[in-house]
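Give me the fold.
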Amino acid sequence: MKCILGLVALSLLLFPSKALAKSWVKIATDTADGVAYYIDSDSIARSGSLRGYWLRIEIPTPTSDGISTIKFRQTASCKSRVMQIDGGAAYDSSGKVLYHGDYGGSAFPVLPHAPSELALRYVCS
């Protein structure tokens, strides 16, 4: 419970000023479908073992509802190996916002060999 509360507190403190992420670094590309994952290196905020950052997902073939880009605010615990999506937005290929919101969801475990593990390695290094 302490970990989840810490993740929420960190995300509330760090993300309002990070809305204009600009230094995107590719951390993974799915070889099956070409989906690419990026982290804004300038947005990484550190507080003990917690990291807050922006994640961008580029989808080469838009989804059935037109989504081609997703940007999330995420918080991760390097120590506990869990992440939480704090908020984000989905965009079409022209950059129009299709969905947005603050999620404040539950923490979820980082899965081995998944993009989330690569993100955790990047932000915790």
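The chain has a mean pLDDT of 86.
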